[in-house]
Amino acid sequence: MGVVSAAADTPETTGTTGLDDAAGFVESLMDTDLYSIGAYFCDRHPELVDEVVQRGSEIESEGLSAWSGREGIEVEEAFGMLLTGLAVRYYKAVTG
């Protein structure tokens, strides 16, 4: 049995830096369904981005059932708004 040195996986020995790791991590965030939903919505409906984020925040604060009841819409539709709002926020957070 061989012993693996702790230095074997350091940035100095692999040729990577903390910046490379950070860039790779941020790039991996772009490879998600939530990112894709947010990107699609922002591209197709840029005029609605602020509204969908605001509604999503309201749903988070009030709760799904309470918000949908107040608005007079089905819980499933409210959930779609919540998910879209989260996706847009996620996309904007990743892309800046």
Oligomer: single chain
Which range does the strand content fall in? under 5%
What does the average pLDDT come to?
81
The run of helices and strands is: HHHHHH
Number of helical stretches of at least 4 residues? 6
**Terminal Cα span:** 48 Å
Uncertain runs:
1-14
Largest sheet: none
Question: What is the C-alpha radius of gyration, as a whole number of Å?
Answer: 20 Å
Shape: elongated
Pairing-aware structural class of the strands and helices? mainly alpha
Structure description:
With 96 residues, the protein is an all-alpha fold. It has a domain at 33-96. The protein is 74% helix and 0% strand. The longest helix has 21 residues, at 75-95. It is elongated, with a radius of gyration of 20 Å. Mean pLDDT is 81; it is low at 1-14.
Features:
single chain, mainly alpha, disordered N terminus, 6 helices
Quick take:
By secondary structure, the protein is an all-alpha fold. The protein has six helices and no strands.
SSE blueprint:
Layout: H1 11-14, H2 18-29, H3 33-44, H4 49-62, H5 64-71, H6 75-95
Helix pairs in contact: 3-6, 4-5, 4-6, 5-6
